[in-house]
Structures are given as C-alpha cells and as structure tokens.
Write a structure and sequence with these properties.
Elements: H1 9-25, H2 29-32, H3 35-52, H4 56-60, H5 71-78, H6 85-110
Length: 118
Amino acid sequence: MKNTSTTTQSETNLIFWFHLLITLSAWVLPFLFWWPLVWAVYAIVHLQFALFGRCLINKMHDLDEKDNKILYTYVLEWLGFQPNRKKLKFFIRQVLYPVLAVFAILWQVVLGIKPLIF
C-alpha cells in the first residue's frame, strides 16, 4: 500500500465540488432548517473568517486567497464574469451571512413559515 501525503487531482476536485455544494446550500438553509440551527451554521462560517482570516476549505482544494480570490470569484471568473474581487470578498465575508441569518428570522418567525426539513 502506497502512503502519500500529497492530495491527488481527483481528491482536489472532489473537495472543490463538496465546497461548492455546501457554499450554495448556505443560500437555501433558511428555507430548510430551524432558524437557530441556521444561525449556528452561519456563526461557524463567520468564526472561521474571524479566527483564521480565510475559508479553511479553500486550502484543501488548492485555492489560494491571494489577490482576494475566493470560491465565488473563482466560479464567476470560470463562467466568464470579472467581479471586483475585493468587493465580492467583503460582501461574502461581512454581509452575506448576517443578511441570510436575519432573513431566516424574518422568514420563519415574522412570516411564520416553517422550515421544510427541520
């Protein structure tokens, strides 16, 4: 059995697609899960930014964050868009998750709409 410490290309691709899936799921969490759980998930995501200054999964699939490159900019640029990386990174890291957390409260508590799963 061969023991290597490097990540293979297929492992990197699998981690990338997993990262994309969980990143996109953040947009629908307020519809699926009870708002305190949603808040906990967003808090954990925000905490990693505060403690480590980066997304920990980016490193797992070799996405270097220099020049403000994050998963969103990588995907948007792959699709042919040229977003302002600095502004997009700020929006994702400082605005998006708090807005989604408030939306979860509005959707479930104020409007009284129950989550679809739990």
